[in-house]
Amino acid sequence: MTNKPDSSKSKNFLVQGSILAIAGIIVRLIGLLYRVPLTNIIGEEGIGVYSTAYSIYNILLLISSYTLPLALSRLIAARLSVRQYYNSYKLFISACIFSLISGGIIGAVCFFGADGFAALMKMPQAAFAIKTLAPTIFIMAFLGTLRGYFQGYRTMVPTAFSQIIEQIVNAIVSLLAGYLLFKAGTAVDLASGTENYYSASYGAAGGTIGTGAGALAALVFCALLFFGQRSRIKAKAARDTGSERDRHSHLLKVLVMTIFPVLMSTTIYQISTVIDQAIFAGYTKTDYSGIWGAFNGKYMLLVHVPTAIATSLGSAVIPTLAAAMQRGRTTEIVDKSGTAIRFNMVIAIPATIGLAVLAGPVMNLLFRGNNNAATAMMIYGSTAIFFTAFSTTTNSILQGIGNIWIPVRNAVIALAIHVVVLFALLYIFDLGIYGVILSNIVFYMVMCVANNICLRNKLNYRQEIAKTFVSPGISAAVMGVASYFIYKLLFSLTHSNIISVVVSVAAGIVIYGILLILTKGIDEVDLSRIPLGNKIARLAKKLRIMRD
Asked: In this structure, are 417 and 475 located in the same domain?
């Protein structure tokens, strides 16, 4: 079997990853757009309650089905690479059975355990919101199965479009339900003599109702796509007489054995947030919900926008690497791993610097009220973007090449170090919320180092330092300085924050792109692998930024 990489498939992997990344950015932007008015409607206390309920939901969703698309796409891609169409379809049916069981059990745990979870997080008013998320867990189990099946065929389009539909419906319903329930809660507060208790609780529940409505809309979309292709898929499976027939019991076992380590690794990522909140709740004595709302509802919300690209390329690279592993194409694996990391850094590095430099203007553009605390969090904590993107990508690569337990081990080590550092920063250095931010950065730094060492050992892989880090770093540094002074100049002339932010960000993107080409951080071959890349290359040649 040849080790020569397939350039067309390499391009397809980046195109599919780019489609999912674009969808991910759109989803995050919609999330920003609706979370801003949602925060304004239900207040920072309401967002703190909402974030608490969502933290519990995320962990329960992980246990039930969140890792299912990644695991299922890897298993299906490996079988499709050797033309096992029957086993691929049967694996999908086994995944549906798994979803029915796991989604039903964990959904029931979410509903009946809501009061206990809320008490554990020292925020009893979150119980109502947690209960409203229980049906969503059941819906997401089947949605994850359908997305994983499509991704196994190495098409990210259904996942991308379903994510956008999910978020649009989520935004509309969240705002409407949040507004109506917040008013109802305010009336209960007035009647009972409480202050912001029921309004925050009911308003947060309105936001979580939107989550369920969005998931249901996405499920309907994916189901219609699947049933539209079902007859063709079943006919292809029926014609597959050459492969050995796997039993459902065997496929369920393989699925669980693949899901479990991916689940463990991802759960540790998510559970660190819950641990942070529990430790911080015990540390702080005043304005707990307000400061946590600023941390989770503003700072972390912005951090997650650029890191959506890392998640998207990770989802795209897993089935591609799994297929290459099945065929023994080592060179292709190394090539695609390096490409995934490099393209992530091209985005993560300028995002890190850009959000640090324009932290205040961006926060004031998106959120009303006093944003001083959230601005300071972003200035000190923007490097979380870089380390999160790098660790997420390397996690996906290790999972794609079959080393699914390595990220688990590395995550356990990182979490242990993270907790020790958090306690030290809170109780020795008294850094407050900044201790939470810095300890999170330490967690991702440890993951980056550990994952990179493992990739070197497993693949004899060496990252291109100049193209991956040096060129984007220099280009982003110049971009950051230029964007800062452009913003200051425009604001002094127009006194308009929105005009100054939009123009300075747009100018920063252009400056960064030009410098990235001039410093050879990206070349014509790289551009040819991404959507509209050839047009960008032709324009760069006309402007004599890029040589023929």
From this structure: no
The closest alpha carbon to 29, from 285, 302, 317, belongs to: 302
**Do residues 160 and 235 touch, judged by C-beta distance below 8 A?**
no
Rounded (5°) CA angle 231-234-240: 145
Gyration radius of the chain's alpha carbons:
23
Q: Which pairs count as long-range contacts for 373-378, CB under 8 Å and 24+ apart, including other chains?
A: 373/291, 373/294, 373/433, 374/294, 374/295, 374/298, 374/299, 376/434, 377/294, 377/295, 377/298, 377/299, 377/433, 377/434, 377/437, 378/299, 378/302
Whole-angstrom distance, CA of residue 220 vs CA of residue 242: 34
Of 406, 430, 463, the position where a domain reaches its end is 463
Q: What distance in Å separates the CA atoms of residue 178 and residue 50, rounded to the nearest whole number?
A: 10
What's the total number of domains in the chain?
Answer: 2
Q: Which two tokens stand for residue 315?
A: 């989802």
pTM metric for this prediction: 0.77
Token output for 2: 């040849």
Matching residue, tokens 């300085």: 481
Instruction: Provide the domain limits for residue 232.
Output: 16-463
What is the C-alpha separation between 501 and 499, in angstroms, rounded?
A: 6
Tens digits of residue pLDDT in 227-270: 998 888 888 888 876 667 878 788 888 888 888 887 787 778 77
Domain membership of residue 8 (yes or no) is no
Q: Is 540 helix (H, G, I), strand (E, B) or coil?
A: helix
Residue keyed to tokens 């008490």 = 119
Please report which confidence band the pLDDT of residue 289 belongs to, taking 50, 70 and 90 as the band edges.
Answer: low
Longest dimension (CA), the chain: 75
Q: What is the pLDDT of residue 8?
A: 45
> Which of 43 and 219 is assigned the larger pLDDT?
219
Which of these three, 439, 463, 487, is where a domain ends?
463
Rounded Cα gap, residues 499 and 493, in angstroms:
11
Residue 2 is assigned to a structural domain of this protein: no
Distance CA 287, CA 264 (A): 33
